[in-house]
Design a protein that fits this description.
Strand 4 and strand 5 form a beta hairpin. The chain has three domains: about 325 residues, ABC transporter type 1, transmembrane domain (ABC transporter transmembrane region fold); about 170 residues, Rossmann fold; about 80 residues, P-loop containing nucleotide triphosphate hydrolases (Rossmann fold). The strands form two sheets. The chain has a six-stranded mixed β-sheet, with helices on both faces. It has a four-stranded antiparallel β-sheet with strand order 2-1-4-5, with helices on one face. The protein has 20 helices and ten strands. The protein is of the alpha/beta class and about 650 residues long.
Length: about 650
Amino acid sequence: MRPMGPPPSDFNEKLKEPLPKTLREVPGYLKRVAAGFFTRLLYILKLVWEAKKSLLVMMIFMAAFNGVSPVLSAYISANLLNRVADVLVLETPDFNTIAAVLLPAMLLQFGYMFFVSLVNTVSNMVTRVSSEVVTNHVKRKIMTKAKELDIASFDIPDFYERLENANREAGMRPIEVIRSTFNIVSTAISAISFIVILSVIAWFAPLVVMVLSVPSAIITFSYRKKNFRYMRFRSKERRQMAYYSGMLVDKDMVKELRLFGLADTFIFNYNRVFDQYFKGIKKLITGESVWNVLVSLVTTTVNCALFFFIAYTVTMGNGEIGDYSLYTGALTSIASCVATLVATTSSIYEGTLFIDNMIVFMNEKRRIVPTLPQARQVTRHVGHTIEFRDVSFCYPGTDRAVLQHVSFTVNPGDTVVLVGLNGAGKTTLLKLLTRLYDPTEGMILLDGYDIREYDTAQLYDMFGVIFQDFGKYAFTVKDNIHFGDISKPQDTQAIRDAATASAADDFISRLPHGYDTPLMRIFEQTGVEPSIGQWQKLAIARAFYSDSDVLILDEPTASLDAIAEQEIFNQFDRLREDKTTFFVSHRLSSATIATKILVLDGGRLTETGNHTQLMQQKGTYYKLFTTQASRYLAEEAERKGAPV
């Protein structure tokens, strides 16, 4: 049986692109690397442009100014130094003479320094604002994409890896890459300007500096790629560390961890995984540092020789002290610019590799879509016929059949109870019915047509569902019930009616702010933490509030006492009117109301019929029902015979 799920991504294959083995392969390899680099860079620029156009324009201006700023600063400083030298050679200097010589140069430097300070302040402001804006934009794109993806995607570890990587990098990578890109522009402008200055006396010096930067560039780019590969393929360890550390600060787990003494176990596991993870990171950092020290030794030696040559040339040419400062400063700046270009380019390269995480995530395709170009429309508020025809199913990434060749038909108005032990496939069957997943084999028909042909949003809208792992939302009581049908305006009276039907109104009326009470103490100090039984009543109220054609109840009363359960069952009789109902409950007394009982065993449908028919067959249902009934009767007899 073929496991269902999205086809494997080619992301890993991209990462494994082999290095060139011959010189002939080098141009093609560099072309592919450059193409990928600029594709990712353009993607990031597009993100910033989408987030706020004016920010990108301001960042371009800042980049241009920062490029010419060091050159202007060098000329102004050299001019001031030369004026100081002029004053030093005066025979009888006085205040007026000194002021006349120095004041213009000092005022120019003051004005320039103030302007640079102003631009830097604005630049920092733009950077901080752009970081917030771009992060928000990227987060919204990720949330919107997650909303559109299939439930099946969330069952695939590789998908979680991409989602985790995209979420982790969303906040910092795009703006870091953009800032680094504009830093390269600024650095390139500065470097070219200083090369022009230095070429007057030592045209070969910039060339020597560039040649010396090649080994450093090779080392840096190599280790950036290694670092990315390590981070990418160690995603599991990072998730484990986040899980272990998160458990100790999870308010829902703190009670159990404290009582069972599990805190040290989680700390131990965190430390164990961190030690494994850190061992590789430490090796990468150490290796890169050793190589950089060796390269730095050679570079420093050559730079000292160039400094001596410049000093000799200026001295022999009767140059001024400011000229020496200008030329040596130019050489230092060129070396600094080249180093910055290498480091920043490698940082961008690494950043764009990480952006692949987001690109791959955003390119994830949705497969739970109508199979017809013009999707069928769901007819609402009528009875529906549902047929499972030889349906089998495996969860994505597995080959274990959770359902095997299941076939049955449900007629309009039927009340269907699903019976079976844990793991029999009951909840999975309901997930297929609501098209959260598609069958691996077989077909599900709604009113005679393949369920995959219908408009997906309309299909979801016709179901009113309470799953056993129902949602608990940190909103008000009113909002939690309204989520049962968010498409219609919030109707206070309908919400109260739904709460009354689910036996939730009684505890809601005792809350500090009634239906306006915030639930869960996550955001509000006045928040209330309902019991699991109270949460379940709210989930049932959502089902009552929804305007559904097919009602699906997966263990809706598991956390309720017998009296509350019976009260809700009585309400279900009214709720089921003119609806098709699917019901899962381990309390088989509820099965007696069913028009059809489906008995699942190991993913196979083994028995079908109503209560009377299945009791007469004396099969699996008979055994389960009589076992549960005899236990209940024994408990009841023991209770009645117990002393008061």
